[in-house]
Design a protein that fits this description.
Nitrilase/N-carbamoyl-D-aminoacid amidohydrolase; six-stranded mixed beta sheet
């Protein structure tokens, strides 16, 4: 119901007033969920606190433009069609989320649909229409409540009793939500995807290496020995494949032969593949640096390499460097990575798995593309040490879990400081670790080949919402003419 107050406030409001109301809504929304970014830039980006706050404020202001645009659209429609226009509000919200996911490389963090990850029966709707479909469902309830308030206050229920007119959409929204939740609960109870495919025991290495120690030459040997020891423990506990976190090696994996050989030796000895997160450099002119994942096969050879395609703004590259001249320390501290250009599926035990590195897991279409290319198991490796003990690691984990529901796949996650864990195809956590503790997590996942409806149709619903919103605006434009 979070959007209901905004929708009530902008009914027949002037465009300027609606814009400001939407901007305020966005500021509250994103300040409350992304508050941790300031400390990331100040602690790890080398920015003075005041400059970090300024850069953070600019990001919040940019993201708030999307709720502001939503408010302007809804206000303009309400001027033309009255409370009936609220039927288009869920479409307009989804259209704005779609735009936020792709514009300027996109920032699809904390979409509205993720709010339902604590209500898994409702979240199962993502297997049909994706996270955007769940966002649309949540926005529909808010729109129904706003319609009820608007009708009662405006007196537009002419012939029929006002009470019936006002609460019919609310009743329909509640019934639809209950039906979806009931279907979702039945889907989870059947659990057919948890019996499908071939089981595999996965070992996840959570080294809990402090970000300040990660590239300290004096700590490198100790950190690496810790990862090797934890890998042996995971294999000893029955792991058939082992995952290290993002950028876990204190060296370039391909260029440090003695270090890499120790990893290869363990893989050969145990005949267990190991997925290693490590930076990669291509010695071109100028050199190109990639955030990558290397699959060491059971024979000790490199069987595949995936290069991260979606880089983190202000983490792995700085957009608009010339404009953000005042953030010079941040620009200098951020690694200038190059984005990978294609998906690479990695062969394990005769099947294919895909990996998403860190931030990439919040891109629904990227993960779906890997499943359509043949991935039977989703993996993600990350380093959430940047976030500190904030809500960000939990946000990141739950957004990854939504990908499992969307695609009907197990998701396996190895994180430097946690949360590491395994999520089943219904979003249920099979096993997980606490944050900021060294952990070896071992659990069972499965290679699954069945595809969900969302896996087949993708974000058709989101694009249909964008088309519906555009069509409604064209009707208003023709009416004005």
């Amino acid at each position: 119901m979070a959007l209901a107050p905004l929708l009530v406030a902008i009914q027949r409001a002037p465009v300027r007033q609606a814009f400001l109301a939407g901007l305020l809504t966005g500021a509250v929304y994103f300040t409350g969920t992304l508050y941790w970014i300031t400390s990331v830039m100040a602690v790890y980006g080398g920015l003075p606190t005041i400059v970090a706050i300024l850069v953070h404020a600019l990001l919040i202001a940019y993201l708030s433009l999307f709720p502001a645009a939503f408010a302007v659209v809804c206000a303009r429609l309400s001027q033309a069609f009255g409370p009936r226009s609220l039927a288009v509000a869920p479409c307009a919200w989804v259209a704005m989320e779609l735009g936020r996911s792709y514009l300027f490389t996109g920032f699809p963090w904390v979409l509205l649909g993720y709010s339902q990850m604590s209500v898994l029966p409702v979240a199962q709707f993502a297997s049909v229409l994706g996270v955007f479909g769940v966002s649309g469902l949540v926005a529909s309830v808010s729109a129904a409540l706003a319609y009820s308030a608007a009708v009662q206050s405006s007196g537009t229920a002419h012939a029929r009793p006002r009470l019936v007119t006002a609460y019919l959409p609310v009743t329909l929204a509640v019934v639809a939500t209950l039906l979806i939740g009931t279907w979702g609960a039945m889907r989870m109870r059947r659990g057919t995807l948890t019996q499908a495919g071939e089981p595999v025991t996965v070992g996840l290495i959570q080294g809990n290496v402090d970000q300040g120690d990660k590239w300290d030459p004096s700590r490198a040997a100790e950190i690496f020995r810790q990862y090797l020891s934890m890998t042996r423990r995971a294999i000893g506990a029955g792991a058939q494949v082992v995952l290290w976190p993002e950028s876990s090696t204190p060296f370039f994996f391909e260029e440090d032969r003695p270090g890499a050989e120790q990893v290869r030796a363990i893989a050969r000895e145990a005949k267990v593949p190991i997925l290693v997160g490590s930076d990669q450099v291509v010695r071109s002119t100028p050199p190109a640096y990639y955030n990558a994942a290397f699959l060491v096969g059971p024979d000790g050879e490199t069987r595949g390499v995936y290069r991260k395609m979606h880089l983190v703004p202000f983490g792995e590259y700085v957009p608009l460097k010339k404009i953000l001249f005042f953030a010079a320390p941040l620009v200098e501290a951020v690694s200038d990575f190059t984005a990978g250009e294609s998906l690479s599926l990695l062969p394990v035990r005769g099947r294919l798995l895909s990996t998403a590195i860190c931030y990439e897991i919040v891109y629904p279409d990227l993960v779906r593309a890997s499943v359509n290319a043949g991935s039977d198991l989703l993996t993600t490796i990350t380093n959430d040490a940047w976030f500190g003990p904030s809500s960000a690691p939990y946000q990141h984990f739950e957004q990854g879990a939504m990908r499992a529901i969307e695609n009907g796949r197990y998701l396996v996650r190895a994180a430097n400081t946690g949360i590491s864990g395994i999520v089943d195809p219904y979003g249920r956590v099979v096993v997980s670790s606490p944050i900021f503790e060294p952990q070896v997590v071992v659990g069972e996942a499965r290679f699954v080949r069945e595809r969900t409806i969302y896996g087949r149709i993708g974000d058709v619903f989101a694009y249909a919402c964008a088309a519906c919103t555009l069509g409604a605006l064209l009707l208003v434009w023709r009416r004005v003419r």
